[in-house]
Specification:
- Helices cover about 25% and strands about 30% of the residues.
- With about 210 residues, the protein is an alpha+beta fold.
- Strands 2-1-5-4-3-6-7-8 form an eight-stranded mixed beta sheet.
- A hairpin with a 6-residue loop joins strand 3 and strand 4.
- The protein is globular, with a radius of gyration of 17 Å.
Length: about 210
């Protein structure tokens, strides 16, 4: 994993407005250290230096996303979240969020998450606070070994129950197959991404270590 200081934002200008950097404070809370202008426009508030739970009401998804992000930061594991969101309770936009760990010695566990959201067209030029009506539906969550992987033993009983209640099957992406399918091009996200059950991927990783 490269360190955060090696992240050259000048090479990411096409998606910079949709990027974010998420860190863990000493008290365990997640905080946005950077949030792109388009992300802030969607929500209608400034996100930089705000905690995750002040932007997204955890009561709407049971805090699943925040708990998985926290685990990912500590473990050094990437996350791909797919689903939908609405800012008016009516029209739903497709939601795709990719967050990958970067080494950073200042953060608990030694990592930060650098992420990007697939651009969507949501006009909010008057910068109206939309958090009250913001709602997300998570359909799938995938883990990316980067280089580590969350293991089933590290998922709390509470989080496991939340995932079960929301019918979210936490799986591990098969990166080799994805790269082969993409063949150098950008592959659109779909509901048939090659992946493994978390238990199978964790067992295979342990076998490699042994």
């Amino acid at each position: 994993m490269p360190s955060r200081r090696l992240l050259d934002l000048r090479r990411l200008t096409s998606i910079l407005r949709w990027m974010f950097i998420l860190e863990m404070d000493d008290d365990g809370s997640l905080r946005y250290r950077l949030a792109g202008s388009s992300l802030e426009e969607v929500v209608g508030v400034g996100m930089t230096d705000q905690t995750y739970d002040t932007i997204f009401d955890n009561s709407r998804d049971g805090g699943i996303a925040e708990e998985v992000y926290a685990l990912s930061i500590v473990r050094g594991c990437g996350v791909l979240k797919c689903g939908a969101f609405t800012v008016d309770g009516d029209y739903f936009h497709e939601l795709e969020v990719l967050a990958l760990p970067f080494a950073d010695e200042r953060v608990l566990g030694g990592t930060v998450l650098v992420g990007a959201i697939r651009p969507v067209s949501v006009d909010n030029q008057i910068f109206q606070d939309r958090r009250k009506n913001l709602s997300r539906v998570i359909d799938d969550m995938f883990l990316l070994p980067s280089p580590n992987l969350i293991t089933p033993q590290q998922i709390t009983f509470n989080l496991a129950n939340k995932l079960k209640e929301q019918r979210i099957d936490l799986r591990v992406l098969d990166m080799e197959q994805i790269f082969n399918r993409a063949d150098g091009d950008i592959m659109p996200i779909d509901q048939n991404l090659p992946s493994f059950k978390l238990e199978i991927a964790a067992a295979a990783a342990q076998e490699i270590v042994n």
